[in-house]
Structures are given as C-alpha cells and as structure tokens.
Amino acid sequence: MDATLNNQGRSLGQGSGGADARAEALVASYERAGYSRVAPAILQPAEPFLDLSGEDIRKRMYLTTAPGGAELCLRPDLTIPVSRDYLASASAGKPASFCYLGPVFRHRNDQPAEFMQAGIESFGRPDRAAADAEMLALGLEATAGYGLGQPDIRTGDVALFAALIAGLELAPAWKRRLVKDFNRKSNLALDLERLMLGGNNARPEYQGVLAALAGSDPKGAHALVTDLLSIAGINAVGGRSVGEIADRFLEQSALGASTKLPRDVRGLIERFLAIGGDPDESAAELRALAADANLTAELGPALDLFESRNGFLAARDIDLKRVRFSTAFGRGFDYYTGFVFELTDPSRTGDPLVAGGRYDGLLTRLGSAEPTAAVGFAVWIERLAAYGAAT
C-alpha cells in the first residue's frame, strides 16, 4: 500500500517546481505572520478520525493494524494531527498558532491518493470573531498567490443551527442527532421526516432490545453493547469504531421514545435553513426569526458573534457583498462548531480551493481537560496549482 501511495503522490512531492515554490512561499508568509511551522507524523491512530471526522473522510481512509492490534491510518487531514500534537506539548491550553505543508492520504476515484495540503490551525484565541475573520483573509491570500483574485466565498455558522435546536422542545437524543447530521443534508432531511412521524424506523426485530435499552443506565448500556460487539469480533463497520457503533445503537433506543415533531416547529427549522445571501441582511432575518419564535435569548449569543465577525471581515477589506452566507451551509466534518467557509472557482470544478472553520469542541473530544477555542483552514495545493497552470 505504501509503495502504491508513494508512486501516486510522487509528482506532488517532487514535481512542478513552480507549484512547490508557491506553496513554500505561502507557508513562509504564514510563518512571518506568527504561525509556527509543524510537521505531524504521517502514521496516526485511526480512532480519532473514525470518531470525529465525518462519513466522507471515514470511507476514504487508508487503515492498517499494528502487530499489537492498534488500528492506524495514513493521515487523511492535518487538523486532528496538529491538534493532538498541540495537546501533547507544553503549549497545551495556551494560545498557539501553527502552519504546515505536507501530504494527506484519501482514496479518490481516478485521482492520486496522496496530495498536498497547506494550512493553519490556531488554538486558544479568546477573540473568536477576529480570529475567524483572519482565517478567511489568509485563505483569500492563498488564492491570490495562485492568480485567483476573486474566488467565490461561501460561509455558514454551525453554532447558529445548534443554538436554534437547543432552544426547541425536543428530546435530548433528537437534539444531538439533528446537530450531528447538520453537515449531512440527506440525513438531516430524513431526521425531520422521522420526527414528523414520531420515533425511529429501526428494524422490527430490534424494537424489543431498543425499548429495554431506552430505560437503562447509559454508561452500563454502552458498556454492554461495546462488549457484545467485541465478543462478536467486530472492530469497525463502515469506517465506524466499536464505540461509535454502540453510540448509534443506543441513540436509536432513545429516539424511539421521542414524540412527534409539531408541524410549526418543523416550519421554523425550515424557515431558518432557508435564510441566506448577504451576511448583514441574513443577520437581520435571523433576528426577526428569533423574535417571532421567542428564541432571542437562545440565539442571541451566536448572532452577536456572527454580526461581530461580519464587522471584522469588513475591517479586513473583505466586501460582504461578495460573501454568500447560508444558514444551511456545512462542511461534512463532525467536529465543526461555528464559522465555516469555502473558497471556490466554479468556472472550473467548483471544488473547494481553501476551506475551514471553527472547531471549539474538538480538543475536548481529543482529551483536553478544558475547552479550547480552535479555528483553521486547509489549502488544496494541487487544485490551486492546476488553476495557476491553466492561467
């Protein structure tokens, strides 16, 4: 496997000097801006990626098992490796900012499995709105460095959706499920349909077991399901770890006890997800929705941060009229918790050239004792290099 990947990625590691020079110049500019360059290990423990990355990354990972049984992977992205190294360092819990340039590995049909990404990860900054705006501004510098001065800018904010759901009268299991499925639009639509019907649609033969688990101690039930899966020799299914499989099974038991979603609540969610366009105009629409639904207290803090971010973007000379904001926009990674963005050139493929966002909850899920603010982005070097070659 390693030889195949190395051969597939050789042109990126050793070829096109112009593209490599620009990538190196880009990361050098990040270093001058105060971001320390790092190079995390290529071979990583698989569990954090299986648990936290999202469906699309999981199914594209290259996995292997160590002689002792530990499951490892070739890093499919650099956010989790940089975060893990930060937590293991003396800087853990303190403000620290890093940049990188290196290969990542994902199965991609008819494309090299190894490809280069540059990027930034910033931890511990209390000025969240300013940090978000800085990420977008630095991302725009990356596209400009390859000759694309006016990329399309798409933004969203997972925190706004999470605040809306937190304010609704729904079972806790449904709240967790809806927020988790926000980045998977087909799953979110299915969730809303199931809520309208009431309960889950698990296979009939599971209903008795799920009903029994619904009233049990959560920790004990999780331990039981995990043990049963281990006894059966199951380590992973469809890219999910045993722990995640257990979580999903227990979630089904909780969802089965839920009540139906009132039609007006579904209408409110759909009204929220339809808001988009100019960020300032969207903020006004969101304020109106919050007032109409008596959710001003719940949505207020996330809206304050959203409006503050808009101000910092304008202060960095980013024309908000160019920004396409959407409340429904997400990025397909489970760990995002706030601002998300993508820069694209739709005249070519529409694939992201630069993409990232805020992931304040990730470090806690990786073992941090204290919540840590975190934001960053990745630059797809091969896509930008292809753009530069074409122009």
Report on the structure:
The structure is a single chain. The chain is α+β, with helices and mostly antiparallel strands and 391 residues long. The chain contains 17 helices and 14 strands. The strands form three sheets. Strands 1-5-6-14-13-12-7-11-10 form a nine-stranded mixed beta sheet, sandwiched between helices. A three-stranded antiparallel beta sheet has the order 2-4-3. Strands 8-9 form a two-stranded antiparallel sheet.
List its traits:
391 residues, globular, disordered N terminus, three-stranded antiparallel β-sheet, 17 helices, 18% strand, alpha+beta, nine-stranded mixed β-sheet, single chain, BirA Bifunctional Protein, domain 2
SS summary, helix count: 17
Please state how the strands of the largest beta sheet are arranged side by side.
1-5-6-14-13-12-7-11-10
The CATH superfamily of the domain at 1-150 and 372-391 appears as Bira Bifunctional Protein, Domain 2
What's the CATH class label of the domain at 1-150 and 372-391? Alpha Beta
Q: What's the gyration radius in Å?
A: 22 Å
Give the integer mean of the pLDDT values.
83
Which consecutive residue ranges, at least 5 long each, have pLDDT under 50? 1-19
**Structural class estimated from helices and strands:** alpha+beta
Number of strands: 14
Strand content: 15-25%
Q: From the coordinates shown, what is the CATH architecture of the domain at 1-150 and 372-391?
A: 2-Layer Sandwich
Principal-axis shape: globular
| Largest beta-sheet details | 9 strands, mixed
Proportion of helical residues: 40-55%
Distance between the termini: 35 Å
CATH topology of the domain at 1-150 and 372-391: BirA Bifunctional Protein, domain 2
